[in-house]
Write a structure and sequence with these properties.
By secondary structure, this protein is an alpha/beta fold. The chain is 33% helix and 21% strand. Strands 15, 16, 23, 24, 25, 26, 27, 28, 29, 30, 31, 33, 34 and 35 form a 14-stranded mixed β-sheet that branches.
């Protein structure tokens, strides 16, 4: 579309339109089906006339024009009957008009219509309005030579070589770049949806065809700076923008390598002077090392593009066929970059015209176009187009503004590494770095032993610990632990020494742990029921200088522990009674001394343990959330080898509460009910799996509790809703954080009566804790954008005991804190909400590329969790026998329910795209868990993609189809009941199968029918219908009817 500044003579413009379209045979074509063949048919112009709309009298002529153009774009073309272009003039005022060129993308492209055709229209109009002879076209715009050139290329050796190049180039290619969606508040969405300029308002026309489009403006002065920077680097402006976009995609997609799509004019030979369709989109492999400078990245990308441009004549669809796979479930090679450089200032007579961009039609991926209006002083326009089902208007503006910020950053980066680019400034930087992390609260310079002594002094006769019929007051627990601490001191226990404690959950275990702490040492809890080798490995982790155990456990421990043992319940009431020397004076531990060596909440490696200090523990137990819950009665049932001991034992004991020791065995709804009734339990910690199981079967059993903490793994919204509905007075707290940050770094509190809005709320940071959402280069990302969660503050552990290398990988310098401060890299992908709360997206390692699409496994799990027949589920990626990545769902039915794979597959298909529906569902009695309550994915049973139900083909038809299935799927055999897509079939393999059936079996089948049939028997049953259909072949013919 061209915005003409001046009066246009409507009659002359109509003559110019008809003259030019009379010349453009290449644009006057239809597609006709003749005897089963699709033919490209030239046609005459006939009595066609361009449209002319005079909207100058409207109250808002521009809005009226947008409405009229939306109607124009919305009307479909009849490929057999219509002229496939719509040309005309919209008059906005006496001295302003819009020249509109609308066409079907099968006949032309941006350069053809916006370049060659537009220039010719201006040239012809100017000659006619000045009563001058119309210049002859230097080259005719005929169809036959244009089409013949394309046919000759496809039959040439060069086409074969180009196809081979792409097949090799895209072998083992990385995934396509697809910008993740942005979470915006309603207020942000409303503000960002507002039009930015006149250019942005014209882009609204795209919404009528299922697209969204935004146009952002870069002022001319700034664009000139970009141009000068490009020149200084030896680049064209288009190359600078493409390289900067690659850096942006590296940060947002969080991929070191990815595919990017580049639009290329492909204008060579006849196509260089004919306005027919020639544009192509080609993939380019992009690598953006975070340590590389922008200059290095740009130079590498330029070299890469020069190589692929030699093969750009091979059409996009031919590249896909050559590669043999559709690399994206969206049907693309990733985000498209199109820098338009053909626009020039036109004059229609004496009236100058400015290019106003184009509505590009429908496509399947985000497209970023860059252009000017053709004038010497034009601003630079960056236009983003995308399907409306991928992004909304506000998101596109957000993405566009981020892209421009990255271009600005790269222009001024100099020798700065790409990973260090920081584009979050001012109020936005405060919003994501400072405001949510203002969590300072009093934190005394004390140890766990000193804090326990303070509670004992304040209320010595309060009951501290209940185990069966035994109840110990704070005074009694203090005295018992002090006697044992004296013995430990005599044996050399003090600061930075590690004592392994191998005892079952009991009052004696609490006494032993407290004694180690009082002696100044650090405890390493060991589960005596563990396998012998795991116990040996665990004791050596510290390494421990002493092993504490009790009489009942001592005989069960394995031999060869290579550490002296002390049976603590055999010491008697006075450990010094038998002439033992007096305990040496305590060498008091300090807040930064070692307190505990614990295995991480997700670790299955006995040799890897987290070293926690007293300061770490005090940060957790003195948090404001424990002011009430910690002083109540807490049920201790979690394994004592993990960090849940802090919730079940240390939080209540160091806040004046009471610990009730649960009987041995796993807690369930019945045991919880009994304990609550017998002991007045007010607070309980339920790992995600147990919480979900109770929610699915007996959520009412949680009634009567004051507070339930859950976490350690993902809890579905369905589980939270069931508990809320059954227990409206219950406070539910969802904690988030690994052992490395001392239990929880953040929590989301649902007070009594508050509804469940979604399950992904990480919440706000705990006291004295800072949460940072960072990109791959450790720069903060804006609110709403997904990044990786890093945790800083006094809760961050010392590191991994005995593993300095692994410690350095995960505990990294914090660029936002004091010198020397560390932060912990969690591996969790999260994003800030505009309300200052953190939302969980997925584990960084819980993403997968399945059938070319990046799948968030948590999203699949959340959908399956809504099924009323499931208590729990987990989705993982497994490789089948063909090397294909497959989604496998492991599910646990709710109590008293049975579910089938077909039922679950249908349910998932009702909510998820086909690429995200699991290929296999495995029903388990329970999911394996780590000691910390997380699903132990490493212990899930291996999936059985072939379950032994093979049925051989029964006739020639089934044998032929089974052979075709097996060839496409690269399998030795396929049974007649085997599902094509469950066996690893995807969109492109479906295309290959359809082609094989057509070529080898001379039968017609559509992909839609293949998706419906799915099996050999399904297709065989359709055979009679399929045999009646013949695939039309594409042919071209001349006006005389000759086939091209």
């Amino acid at each position: 579309m061209w915005d003409v500044d001046g009066e246009l003579d409507a009659a002359v413009m109509e003559s110019a339109f008809r003259h030019v379209m009379g010349e453009a045979e290449v644009l006057r074509v239809n597609f006709a089906d003749h005897d089963g063949e699709l033919r490209l048919v030239p046609r005459e112009l006939g009595d066609w006339r361009p449209f002319h709309l005079d909207l100058s009298a409207e109250a808002d002529p521009e809005q009226a024009a947008r409405d009229a153009l939306a109607d124009l774009v919305r009307q479909p073309f009849d490929l057999e009957r219509d002229l496939l272009f719509r040309l005309g003039v919209v008059r906005l005022a006496a001295d302003r008009s819009l020249l509109v060129i609308a066409y079907h993308h099968l006949i032309s492209d941006g350069f053809g219509a916006g370049g060659l055709l537009s220039r010719r229209l201006a040239e012809v109009y100017t000659a006619l309005v000045r009563a001058e002879p119309v210049p002859e076209l230097p080259h005719p715009w005929d169809l036959e030579p244009f089409a013949a050139e394309a046919v000759e290329y496809r039959a040439s050796q060069r086409f074969t070589e180009d196809s081979a190049f792409w097949r090799d180039y895209l072998k083992d290619a990385p995934a396509p770049a697809q910008v993740p969606r942005v979470a915006l508040s309603d207020a942000q969405r409303s503000a960002l949806s507002e039009p930015l300029s006149s250019a942005d308002r014209w882009s609204e026309v795209a919404e009528t065809i299922g697209m969204v489009s935004r146009t952002l403006t870069v002022p001319r002065a700034e664009a000139d700076t970009w141009t000068e920077t490009a020149k200084s680097m030896g680049l064209w402006m288009s190359q600078l923008i493409t390289a900067a976009a690659a850096v942006y995609l590296r940060h947002r997609c969080d991929r070191p390598e990815f595919l990017l799509s580049l639009a290329v004019g492909n204008r060579v030979g006849v196509a260089s002077r004919t306005p027919g369709l020639a544009v192509n989109v080609v993939p380019v492999r992009v690598a953006v090392p975070l340590g590389a400078t922008f200059t290095d990245i740009a130079d590498t990308l330029v070299d890469e593009t020069y190589e692929i441009f030699d093969h750009a004549a091979c059409h996009y669809s031919d590249i896909q066929r050559a590669v043999g796979t559709v690399l994206s479930g969206r049907g693309s090679f990733g985000t498209v970059i199109n820098v338009v450089e053909f626009v020039e200032r036109l004059h229609f007579g004496d009236s100058p015209a400015r290019y106003s961009g184009a509505t590009t039609g429908t496509f399947e991926e985000l497209s970023i176009g860059v252009y000017t209006d053709g004038s010497a002083d034009s601003d630079l326009y960056i236009r983003l187009d995308a399907p409306a089902n991928l992004y909304h208007r506000a998101e596109l503006r957000f993405i566009g503004e981020e892209l421009i910020a990255h271009i600005r950053a790269t222009v001024t980066a100099g020798a700065q590494p790409a990973g260090a680019l920081d584009v979050v400034f001012g109020a936005e930087r405060h919003q994501v770095l400072r405001a949510p992390n203002d969590t300072r609260a009093p934190l005394p310079e004390a140890t766990v032993a000193e804090l326990f002594a303070l509670q004992t002094e304040q209320d010595p006769d309060a009951v501290a610990l209940v185990h069966g019929d035994t109840a110990l007051t704070y005074r009694e627990l203090d005295e018992r632990s002090e006697r044992l601490a004296g013995e430990l001191r005599r044996r050399g226990v003090g600061p930075e020494t590690v004592v392994a404690v191998a005892m079952p959950r009991s009052a004696g275990l609490v006494t032993a742990l407290l004694a180690v702490v009082k002696a100044g040492g650090a405890y390493l809890p060991v589960d005596p029921a563990s396998p012998a080798e795991r116990i040996r490995s665990g004791v050596g982790t510290g390494p421990a200088c002493l092993l504490l155990t009790d009489t009942a456990t001592a005989g069960t421990l394995p031999t060869g522990l290579d550490v002296p043992a002390l049976v603590c319940d055999g010491l008697g009431p006075d450990t010094a009674a038998d002439g033992a020397p007096e305990a040496p004076a305590a060498s008091p531990a300090r807040p930064d001394n070692l307190l505990a060596v614990l295995h991480g909440s997700g670790s299955a490696d006995a040799a890897t343990a987290v070293a926690l200090t007293h300061r770490n523990m005090l940060r957790f137990v003195l948090d404001r959330h424990w002011k009430d819950g910690g002083r109540g009665t807490v049920l201790w049932h979690a394994p004592h080898t993990g960090d849940a001991l802090a919730l079940d034992v240390w939080a209540p004991l160091l806040n004046g509460g009471r610990v009730v020791v649960a009987p041995e065995g796993h807690l369930d709804a019945d045991a919880l009910t009994e304990a609550r009734a017998a002991h007045g339990i007010t607070t309980v910690w339920l790992p995600a799996g147990l919480f979900s199981a109770i929610a699915a079967g007996h959520p009412e059993r949680l009634a009567g509790l004051r507070e339930v903490w859950t976490g350690g793994d993902r809890v579905s919204a369905a589980a939270l809703r069931r508990v809320r509905e059954a227990c409206p007075e219950l406070t539910i707290v969802h904690g988030h954080g690994p052992t490395e940050t001392t239990v929880f770094a953040a929590c989301h509190r649902l007070p009594a009566g508050e509804p469940v809005r979604h399950a992904d709320a990480v919440g706000r940071p705990m006291d004295n804790t800072a949460l940072y959402v960072l990109g791959p280069g450790l720069a903060p990302v804006p609110a709403g954008v997904t990044g990786e969660l890093y945790v800083a503050g006094p809760g961050v552990a010392r590191g991994y005991a005995g593993h300095p290398g692994r410690t350095a990988e995960r505990f990294v310098p914090c660029p936002f804190g004091p010198d020397g401060a560390l932060m912990y890299r969690t591996g969790d992908r999260v994003r800030w909400g505009t309300d200052g709360r953190l939302d969980y997206v997925a584990r960084a390692d819980a993403q997968a590329d399945v059938r070319g699409v990046r799948v968030e496994l948590a999203e699949v799990e959340e959908v399956l969790s809504e099924h009323s027949g499931l208590a729990r589920c987990v989705v993982v990626v497994k490789e089948d026998g063909t090397g294909q990545q497959r989604l496998v769902a492991y599910v646990v039915p709710a109590a008293g329910r049975t579910v089938t794979a077909d039922e679950l597959r249908r349910f998932a298909a009702g909510w998820l795209p086909e690429s995200m529906v699991p290929s296999l569902f495995m029903v388990l009695e329970r999911l394996p868990e780590t000691a910390g309550g997380r699903v132990d994915r490493a212990s899930l049973p291996e999936p059985r993609f072939d379950d032994g139900t093979y049925r051989a083909p029964r006739n020639d038809t089934e044998r032929a189809l089974a052979k075709a299935f097996a060839e496409v799927l690269e399998l030795d055999r396929v049974g007649i009941d085997d599902d094509f897509f469950d066996l690893g079939g995807n969109s492109l393999r479906a295309i290959r199968l359809v082609g094989l059936i057509r070529a080898e079996l001379d039968q017609e089948v559509s992909i839609r029918r293949l998706f419906a049939a799915r099996t050999v028997t399904g297709l065989s049953d359709m055979w009679r219908d399929l045999a009646q259909s013949r695939r039309p072949a594409l042919r071209r013919r001349t006006k005389a009817g000759a086939v091209l």
